[in-house]
Each structure stands twice: as structure tokens, then as C-alpha cells.
């Protein structure tokens, strides 16, 4: 479904080859249409986790740049079964992530993850998936403002991360830091990028010292606080407007990462004695007994109003089943911490990226 690759190839071709190329492109359009049919009949996000000894897709010790936060094995997590699960959709098979194919497909392209630490989790997974397959491929990691740039120099592929917790702007003013739900100047960084994967949610309920703003502004009104779910919705609407006015679908493909779930309350998966995810070694078979996060409904509503094509990476349900996938006491805080929000690497975000990859086949 990489039509954009073929179409730019056609445009830049010389006149003598035009007829031949038209035929070739026609053929590719037909193939693409057929591909769309088959993918629309298969929902990648409905399925189950199956044990597969050929997983994980990489050895985390061969990926030197996984941050300590996600390095569960290095931090002493003893059980490894959680790395051996593959996501199996109900109605089709996912193609296994193929890093060499990925390098060829995305040669010269820019990919950006925009969002909070869950975006960082997925970004690191993708760089590991690529690096571990071709460890000799030279790479270069730099940082410009909020953007970390991981470049595979041999292929001219840049896999970037814009650390941006709310998507909309936080502006320092005289009264303090103002979260501006109608303003998305930060979006100037995202123009003309080939693949964009957005995400925001986990910071919307932050209060107290870790809340990185003092006032919230919407519709010309500034206040100390507003309903957080409404604030989330307003920000998504601003982002949706940005997509509609700035994305050229012939050049860019837009995804939303979806809502990544946490596991702090065992009652949700019928294990009331579990006060967190610690000691969880296996996924749930599904369907998940607990409720869907309300933020997902808000997100889906806003996505349905966007004119430009945006694909939801609807990873909530499949990740809800992975109570075993979090760092727990093998994360940033170590034995005194309890991280049931982020995901171990290797781990669940590798599956998010495997599904992302399948959208391009
Ligand atoms: C996720 O689960 C909810 C509630 O069980 C269900 O309504 C929804 O269709 C599921 N979505 C997917 C993509 O499986
Ligand atoms: C790494 O990237 C930066 C920014 O693009 C560039 O200035 C630098 O020359 C690159 N270094 C290497 C070794 O390619
Ligand atoms: C845990 O989940 C159950 C069931 O959804 C709910 O009744 C309970 O209040 C939750 N406990 C906490 C501490 O959030």
C-alpha cells in the first residue's frame, strides 16, 4: 500500500517512458485496491496472544540504547515468557516485522512519533527492531529542541521523537505556565514528514507538583482548571484541525497511537488480590473483563470528525490483556518504584510497531 512511493516515482520519470510507466502505475493502483479490500476485511486489533518461541523480535541486550526505564531484563526481571507472545488477529496473519524490507520501503523517509513517554516507548522499540536486524547500519542520534532524531545514515531514514505531552501548547506568561487548548504552534515541527504517529493521554489527569502548567486557556477564557476529559477533547479537536489544514495525504500518512492502558487494579481483571502488575507473568486470554478507558471513546469521536485520512492504531484492547508486560519493579524506580504504565522492551510496543508495519504492506 505504499502508493505514495510509486506515484512520486511516476512523476519524476522521463517522457519517453511515460506510457510504460502509466501501465505499471495502473497495475499498482489495481494491486493496491485489492490490498485495501483484504485489509478492510481483517481487523488487525481483534485477536489473541499466542506463545511463539520464535519471538521476541530482538534480544534487548543487543539494543544498546534502550533507556533504563524500559530495560526490564537489565534491571533484573527474571521471567522471560512475557517476551515470547505474538499477536494473532482473528481473521488474518500479521506479516512478521522485517527490518530489511522496512529499510527499503522507507529509504529517504522521515518518521516521527509525537507524544508522551508512551510515544518514547514505541519510538525506542522501532529503533531497536531496526538496529538489531542490521547492527552494522550506521546511525546517528541527535537532538534539536524537543525532537530526538535517530538517523540510519546508510538509508537516509530518520525515526524521530517529539516529546510533547499534550500536543497543544504550554506557554510561559506573566501569570505562569498556560496550557492553551486552542493553540498548536508546536505543530510547525511536524510539517512535511512522511509518517506521523501521535499520542496524548497520560498527562491529562496529572495534578499537584508534577502538573506542568498553572492555568488552562480555552475559547479566550483562562482558568485554574477545567474538567480534564473536556480539556483532552478540546486539545484533540485542535489537533484534528491541524491535521485537516496541514496534512497532504499524498505525502504523509497519519496514525494515532491510541490509548495505552495501565494495570494497577487487579479487580479489573478478576484478581482482586493484585494491587498492581507486579509478579504478573502471563497475558489474559481475553476479552478483557474490565471497562474500556473512557478516553478511547473521546478519541474515537474526534477522529471521526477529521476529513483527512487518519489511522487509529487501536492498541488498547490488545494491550489491556498484557498485565504481564509492564516493568513493575524492574523499571526506572527499581524495587521501590512500581511502573504498570510503560512497557518492557522487548515487549508490547514491538507488536504496536509490527501492526504499524503491516499497514504499509
Ligand atoms: C475492545 O473492547 C471493547 C469492549 O469489550 C469492544 O467494544 C471493542 O469492539 C473492542 N475493540 C477491538 C478493536 O477489539
Ligand atoms: C549527525 O546528525 C547531525 C545533525 O543532522 C549532523 O550535523 C552530523 O554531522 C551527523 N553526524 C554523523 C556522524 O553523521
Ligand atoms: C478497582 O476496580 C474495581 C472494579 O472496577 C473498583 O470497584 C475499585 O474501586 C477499584 N479500586 C481502586 C483502588 O481504584
UniProtKB/TrEMBL annotation:
Keyword tags: Membrane, Signal, Signal-anchor, Transmembrane, Transmembrane helix
Example of a GO MF term: O-acetyltransferase activity
Major location category of this protein: membrane
Compartments where found: Membrane
GO annotation, cellular component aspect: Golgi apparatus; membrane
Membrane disposition: Single-pass membrane protein
Domain Trichome birefringence-like C-terminal positions: 94-358
Trichome birefringence-like N-terminal domain span: 41-93
Alphabetized Pfam families for the sequence: PC-Esterase, PMR5N
PANTHER family associated with the record: PROTEIN TRICHOME BIREFRINGENCE-LIKE 41, PROTEIN TRICHOME BIREFRINGENCE-LIKE 9-RELATED
Family: Belongs to the PC-esterase family. TBL subfamily.
Protein name (database record): Protein trichome birefringence-like 41
Lineage of the species this protein comes from: Eukaryota, Viridiplantae, Streptophyta, Embryophyta, Tracheophyta
